[in-house]
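During the reporting period the student researcher (J.K.) took over the structure-prediction task from the postdoctoral fellow and processed the backlog of single-chain submissions. One of the processed entries is reproduced below for the supervisory committee.
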Amino acid sequence: MERSNDFRFSTGVIGYPLLFVLAIWITFWFEIRFGFDFNHFGIYPRTLTGFRGVFFSPFIHGDLSHLWHNTLPLLILSMALFFFYPKNSWKVLLLGTLLTGGMTWLLGRPANHIGASGIIYMLFGFLFFKGIIAKHFRLIALSFVVVFIYGSMIWYTLPVDPKISWEGHLSGLIVGVVLAFFIKKGIAKPKAYYWESSDYNPDDDEFLKHFDENGNFIEKLPEEEIEDNIEIVYEYKAKDDSSKED
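J.K. obtained the following structure tokens:
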């Protein structure tokens, strides 16, 4: 049975994603306001100092356009994560961020990889594939909504633009898919019908009694035939008029 607390709204559904996005915007404002350049804190693959970018790169963006294009999908997908997967949201977000950054550090080109787009692709991969795997109608619906809105992002997991970290995108997508397959606890279960229970006996099923062993429909059950053969006899008694006055 579907539990009532599988999809429960809380302030964290909106609050945590907003705080995350706000931290990214504050970092960008700080760079512009005080003339800093944090790009060197990004992921620089296969170097010790470049590994620090695994923790810092999601908060660093090259320009306002880069920041804006990451803000809305990050906000929407993280809200969906916190609402539909409340018991695994932090695990997916934190573990997914670290694994995405680590994979980018291993596979990326020798350049500073910055931005939260890797996390966006991780969330996309997890939300889409987990909904299909879980087989819950709400989670499946979420999967189709996600792929309908953001399905075109797949194109940017390929090296179509040298300015885009396609390695970070591909790493995020792979990590999201892997997490979707390995995280199984705390996921909403599809509604179980009575014929799926362990104590279900087909012989006691009133619906199946209307079919014979060959699957042919039986118009009348034996009990119904017996009831149809019951004969009701009415006896009429003449009215006694002797009590009437002449």
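The committee noted the following: The mean pLDDT is 86.
J.K. will present the remaining backlog at the next meeting.
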